[in-house]
């Protein structure tokens, strides 16, 4: 099984360095830079399965790919926020109209921004989305090139602690903000193999919770300074690492997101989200 790994999916980053999770699957971890490429990589046969935020599989389905959901993480209320400069005149969501927003468009950032704007009666079209990496977004906010940055952990706390940013709104319950794990119907993975993959992720979630220092060391890297390790320790401790087999709840959440992005004009046609493999033996 060729398992795709990109920097933003922490479960799979850990899985690559957590031996024994996928016994019997002959796992090969394939690194790539951008989670939004997951669907295309599966379609080309370069990977068999991957994990992303909630939005990339919807974009893949809107492009005609037969997405199949297999698992999801617990919600991640602390892994997403809208940040502004400390002295910004943006003090509330209503002030976002006409502003430039640095983000990874087509990731969960898009859904978080859409639902946040709805709280003030606005649409995605009421702001200017600026595609930027997290590092570039941080620099652009400091330089005043953008008004808002859709940020993730650990950058949220780092930027605020450095005096570079101020919290406008945290993800919280605005969106579920799960990691989702998915494949394509055309990938040809047997249900038993998918079940083994999910079972390995469930085990990983339990073992990370039992040994958070091990996870923090992996994520921080072998040459990390003490401050970097401390920051990753905070990220690990602040997250529920539980993995759930795909179910009707996940499908309903994905449908709600698809409907929202269609209403905001990001999808040309409405989507129907229905295909998942529950992997009942994974619990």
TrEMBL record:
Q: Gene3D superfamilies from the xrefs?
A: Periplasmic binding protein-like II
Protein name according to UniProt = ABC transporter
Q: What range(s) does the SsuA/THI5-like domain occupy?
A: 23-160
Known InterPro entries for this protein?
SsuA/THI5 (IPR015168)
* Coiled-coil positions: none
Q: Which organism is it from?
A: Paenirhodobacter populi
Where does the record locate the signal sequence feature?
none
User: This protein's superkingdom?
Assistant: Bacteria
